């Protein structure tokens, strides 16, 4: 058994499955996040968020799989009775993209539902996440990278009901520099990372997302003025988490508490999953305890 301090994961994602009384932890392997040949994605399993069994192989690429490095940010959503993994991949000379995989059980094994990424083939993209709107229509929210556009962009695109392909063109939601808390690089680069959608009990639509802040890697909140994915999107003036950590997601534990999972610090290979209890008001969320 391991604790979270033993698990070198970036971009942690925890799937809570109440009927099984289990949590499933996915993430980017810190050892191969930036260099080396990743073996795939692993999952750890816990019943109390304290002790974790694993790692268990959740995804292992076939020999002819198109990507060979930068296996990043796997997140798993339960949708229409199956489990879908959204993850980003890269190959030398081929733009980074998010691909969708599926499995019958939370731990996998996950298999690609297509032989290519679902993000635009000519764009450098990452961190696709699933959002299901008020009409039960699936969307993918994803980032277009600063390495291509300088000022990182956030997009939404409709998905087919089986998540196998997109419908229509991606819709630009905002650019990273529009948030008051973001800090640009020496040549004006602004990062967009790790979107995650959350709807409050009153119907307020929020997005967690990460970028560079005054104290390093940080995570902020954006909210849709209309309550729909189309926005327009307003940004909180200060980040939700500013202490060199981010790429967050929210889940409810088995007692109903709303929990935030991030990685901190952002320095490789020291990053570890960090769980923080948060509280929700009608319009927002805030950190309850550290």
From TrEMBL:
Belongs to the glycosyl hydrolase 43 family. The keyword Metal-binding does not apply. This is Glycoside hydrolase. Keywords: Glycosidase, Hydrolase. Coiled coil: none annotated. InterPro entries: GH43_arabinanases, Glyco_hydro_43, Glyco_hydro_beta-prop_sf. The keyword Hydrolase applies. Pathway: Glycan metabolism; L-arabinan degradation. One of its GO terms (molecular function) is hydrolase activity. It comes from Paenibacillus odorifer. The lineage of its organism: Bacteria, Bacillati, Bacillota, Bacilli, Bacillales. Pfam families: Glyco_hydro_43 (PF04616). PANTHER family: ARABINAN ENDO-1,5-ALPHA-L-ARABINOSIDASE (PTHR43301), ARABINAN ENDO-1,5-ALPHA-L-ARABINOSIDASE A-RELATED (PTHR43301:SF3).
């Amino acid at each position: 058994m391991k604790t979270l301090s033993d698990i070198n994961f970036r971009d942690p994602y925890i799937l809570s499955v109440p009927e099984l009384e289990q949590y499933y932890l996915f993430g980017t392997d810190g050892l191969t996040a930036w260099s080396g040949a990743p073996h795939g994605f692993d999952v750890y399993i816990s019943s109390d968020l304290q002790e974790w069994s694993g790692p268990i192989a959740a995804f292992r690429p076939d020999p002819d799989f198109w990507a060979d490095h930068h296996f990043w940010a796997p997140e798993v959503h339960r949708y229409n009775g199956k489990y879908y993994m959204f993850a980003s991949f890269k190959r030398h000379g081929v733009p980074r993209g998010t691909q969708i995989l599926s499995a019958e059980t939370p731990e996998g094994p996950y298999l690609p539902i297509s032989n290519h990424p679902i993000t635009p083939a000519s764009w450098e993209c990452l961190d696709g996440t699933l959002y299901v709107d008020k009409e039960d229509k699936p969307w993918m929210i994803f980032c277009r990278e600063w390495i291509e556009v300088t000022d990182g962009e956030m997009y939404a695109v409709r998905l087919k009901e089986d998540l196998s392909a997109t419908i229509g063109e991606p819709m630009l939601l905002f650019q990273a520099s529009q948030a008051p808390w973001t800090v640009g690089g020496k040549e004006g680069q602004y990062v967009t990372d790790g979107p995650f959608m959350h709807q409050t009990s009153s119907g307020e639509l929020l997005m967690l997302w990460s970028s560079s802040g005054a104290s390093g890697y940080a995570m902020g909140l954006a909210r849709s003025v209309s309550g729909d994915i189309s926005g327009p999107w307003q940004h909180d003036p200060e980040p939700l988490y500013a202490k060199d950590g981010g790429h967050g997601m929210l889940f409810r534990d088995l007692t109903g508490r709303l929990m935030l999972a991030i990685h901190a610090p952002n320095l490789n290979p020291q990053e570890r999953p960090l769980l923080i209890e948060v509280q929700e008001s009608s319009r927002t969320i805030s950190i309850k305890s550290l």
